[in-house]
């Protein structure tokens, strides 16, 4: 498997930098007493290769070094080690299982919290937060806490702090929408106006959006109306299909009992899988291989009118050539037959986690770093460099929406009920592998029965969770007959 947050083509263009005019930190007249005063510490952060938000923490680390030198009187330097997303967990686990301090701070995928916390590899943060009032933060939504911080789901046990918030957004070609000839032609064909504002898209359903996707699908011009992720790589297809499943009223599992069979493989969820595949008709050739990088390519090359993409890759989606030509809006609502139109999309983003085996010095630096990272000045600087902070104070600033073109939609989708994460269970990777196999088999035509695919996934996942003790019930006898 290759990474969800895969190496992005043209990645160098993502390396946003900010020239700081006024001093970034408040100068202090005297240093505070600190146990590390006079010492020099070297720290290592493990992050995601090719994923700019991961590297921003290290690129901003000289500001932290300046801060602690002036406030506490110690010197610190940071090294950044990285791995593609599909290899990152294994790289971290291989080190942590030996109780190594090789990586002092790790940028984890949110779904890995259980796999890192269960064996005691990362530091539980409840006591740290209690002892550091600056880390008792008013987050923008409960979704932030549920996604990046807690394991088990629904508990009060905190294992991570948000490093990069992320949601799915719809990136559309504003210049195509604003073309008078296009607007006139669309009005003539459908007797409605093309959507053109944030508010228009906020209220748009998939049925209404389909008219727009169909209108801009012009293979003879090498243009298509839409792109979304279908790739078998890491969790690409899963995150994209979850949007259909959740928005149309479905669920992946019962998190309290670990039950998957009978929850995932309902006829309604099978119908959602068929609907997910049906949208390939508006996508460019090769769409079953589209992941993050490929979605960036087809959009920036002018091949598609719109694509659902992570807000975190906004800098790559809106190139210099596309400045002022792209609108970032909420993705459409879905409506199952007889149901209510809803919008529930996949959460992305990553938390910081702290190596539980850090010695006293490195643990103190890691906690100092967290205290600094969530200062208002740091959070604002992170946003200005293209990052997505999660604290309510920063996101509620009057100027936040104007910092980046995706910020308004990021806030909108970060509201409770509009985005959600999936399993934090330690068996996440095994569950995901089965799911990706099934979805890919269906969208590529290797399997033709959506219900059989959902049955296969549900039975396999039920067995995984039963074997691990998470699920109370074994797979039913009918599971012996399932296959792709």
Low-confidence stretches: 1-29
Structural class, by secondary structure, is alpha/beta
Helix amount, in percent? 25-40%
CATH topology annotation of the largest domain: D-Maltodextrin-Binding Protein, domain 2
**Would you identify the CATH H-level superfamily of the largest domain?**
Periplasmic binding protein-like II
Strand content: 5-15%
| Counted beta strands | 9
Main sheet record: 9 strands, mixed
**Domains counted in the coordinates: how many?**
2
Q: Could you state the order of secondary-structure elements as H and E?
A: EHHEHEHHHEHHHHEHHHEHEEHHHHHEHH
Alpha-carbon Rg, integer = 23 Å
Mean pLDDT: 93
What does the secondary structure layout of this molecule look like, with pairings?
Layout: E1 40-48, H1 52-59, H2 61-71, E2 75-83, H3 85-96, E3 105-107, H4 113-117, H5 126-131, H6 142-148, E4 161-173, H7 174-178, H8 180-190, H9 198-202, H10 206-215, E5 224-227, H11 236-247, H12 267-278, H13 292-300, E6 304-310, H14 314-317, E7 326-329, E8 345-354, H15 360-373, H16 376-384, H17 392-395, H18 400-403, H19 407-414, E9 419-420, H20 428-443, H21 450-468
Fold and architecture overview:
This is Putative periplasmic solute-binding protein, ABC-type sugar transporter. Pfam families: SBP_bac_1 (PF01547). It is found in: Periplasm. Keywords: Periplasm, Signal, Sugar transport, Transport. Belongs to the bacterial solute-binding protein 1 family. The chain is of the alpha/beta class. It has two domains: 11-166 and 348-419, 3-Layer(aba) Sandwich (D-Maltodextrin-Binding Protein, domain 2); 168-346, D-Maltodextrin-Binding Protein, domain 2. It has 21 helices and nine strands. It has helices at 52-59, 61-71, 85-96, 113-117, 126-131, 142-148, 174-178, 180-190, 198-202, 206-215, 236-247, 267-278, 292-300, 314-317, 360-373, 376-384, 392-395, 400-403, 407-414, 428-443, 450-468, and strands at 40-48, 75-83, 105-107, 161-173, 224-227, 304-310, 326-329, 345-354, 419-420. Strands 1, 2, 3, 4, 5, 6, 7, 8 and 9 form a nine-stranded mixed β-sheet that branches. α11 packs across α20. The radius of gyration is 23 Å and the shape is globular. The chain starts with 39 loop residues before the first strand and ends in a 16-residue tail after the last helix.
